[in-house]
């Protein structure tokens, strides 16, 4: 058994979910069975974004790898919990055997991008406790937390507006031009929050000489990862529903079928300049034979605070915005004492649940982590999730998501 029996970080907010201007509060617990000589126990608060991927190239004679990367730092703060200050000289203190608890508090900036994790890029927020020992390896413990940028749909100009999009495609049949296939997509609004349904209305007309294999509607998430020399675009289908075949000369009607929005980060990833996120609803027609799909797209906004008009439809009282200096009471931590915030206070809006990201957990080991780093190294950010059929009360839901 080593000298260190227990070394962990706990948040006062058990969910580990925070909004702009909130206090990240908690305590570090250290339990020793033998004394340890150290410089200090320090706590590091870090928030930043990173993009990195590699590509294999060939010059005809050999292959080589090109690495693309970029970083952003949003905050970095160090707090000494025990021992010498960072620049202090002199003898190193000794921590005797026993159990110790060190409280901490750190106020987050008011504006930060939402947490996001993928294999190519991330926005990540961590608290790391370090037992800094002279001439020996340091003990480390790391805890990752979720930050949610409050994207209020009531402040988005187009969120409550409907939209109509249409498209047409001509197919060739046995070297002869066939009639077109056409599609119309209608949405009653453009702003949604995770947990809501997107009702699909539309019509597909098959004037070709072919039977269409199927039609389907889906939500597409498009993520752009930027580096100084190249941008990489990744598209994912995060929700999809199908209709069956469409005979030649036939029609297909979509009459309010529901696409459910899974737990996802808000649109745009505001505040991050190296990762962009957009969402699009598409109505697609899959022709039989060698032809590309007809795709009718409409960009939507995924926020974190729902439209007041939608809340009323589900029997929820209309929220009353408070002065802009008061923070939103959705997360479980007390906002009133945090200070000013740019988040409106909707007193009557039921709080969301917090649900693990649709994409699941990732490995959060950093380059400077090693076998002496403690903590849960598998992590998934959680996002605000509204189920209008159940009035949630700041619950955390760990659901199995289809990836």
From TrEMBL:
It comes from the Eukaryota. GO terms for cellular component: cytoplasm. GO terms for biological process: protein transport. Coiled coil: none annotated. SMART domains: Arrestin_C. Residues 177-307 form the Arrestin C-terminal-like domain. Belongs to the arrestin family. This is Arrestin C-terminal-like domain-containing protein. It comes from Patella caerulea (Rayed Mediterranean limpet).
């Amino acid at each position: 058994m080593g000298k260190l029996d227990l070394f962990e970080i706990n948040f006062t907010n058990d969910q580990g979910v925070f909004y702009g201007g909130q206090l990240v509060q908690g305590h570090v617990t250290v339990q020793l069975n033998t004394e340890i000589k150290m410089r200090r126990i320090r706590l590091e608060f870090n928030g930043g974004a990173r993009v990195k991927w590699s590509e294999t190239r060939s010059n005809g004679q050999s292959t080589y790898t090109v690495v693309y990367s970029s970083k952003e730092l949003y905050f970095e703060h160090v707090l000494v919990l025990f021992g010498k200050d960072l620049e202090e000289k002199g003898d190193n203190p000794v921590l005797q055997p026993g159990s110790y608890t060190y409280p901490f508090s750190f106020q987050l900036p008011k504006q930060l991008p939402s947490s996001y994790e993928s294999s190519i890029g991330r926005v990540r927020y961590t608290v790391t406790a370090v037992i800094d020992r002279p001439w020996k390896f340091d003990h480390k413990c790391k805890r990752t937390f979720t930050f949610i940028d409050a994207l209020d749909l009531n402040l988005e100009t187009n969120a409550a507006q409907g939209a109509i999009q249409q498209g047409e495609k001509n197919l060739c049949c046995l070297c002869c031009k066939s009639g077109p296939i056409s599609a119309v997509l209608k949405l009653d609004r453009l702003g949604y929050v995770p947990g809501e349904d997107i009702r699909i209305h539309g019509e597909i007309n098959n004037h070709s000489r072919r039977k269409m294999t199927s039609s389907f509607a889906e939500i597409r998430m498009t993520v752009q990862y930027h580096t100084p020399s190249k941008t990489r675009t990744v598209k994912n289908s995060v929700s999809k529903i199908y209709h069956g075949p469409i005979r030649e000369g036939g029609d297909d009607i979509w009459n309010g079928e529901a696409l459910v929005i899974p737990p996802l980060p808000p649109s745009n990833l505001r505040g991050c300049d190296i990762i962009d996120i957009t969402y699009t609803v598409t109505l697609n027609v899959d022709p039989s034979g060698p032809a590309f799909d007809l795709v009718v797209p409409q960009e939507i906004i995924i926020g974190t605070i729902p439209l007041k008009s939608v809340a009323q439809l589900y029997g929820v009282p209309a929220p009353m915005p408070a002065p802009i200096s008061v923070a939103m009471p959705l997360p479980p931590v007390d906002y009133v004492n945090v200070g000013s915030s740019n988040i409106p206070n909707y007193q009557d809006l039921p709080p969301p649940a917090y649900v693990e990201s649709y994409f699941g957990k990732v490995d959060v080991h950093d380059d400077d982590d090693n076998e002496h780093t403690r903590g849960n190294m598998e992590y998934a950010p959680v996002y605000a999730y509204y189920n209008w059929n159940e009035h949630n009360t700041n619950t955390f839901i760990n659901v199995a998501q289809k990836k």
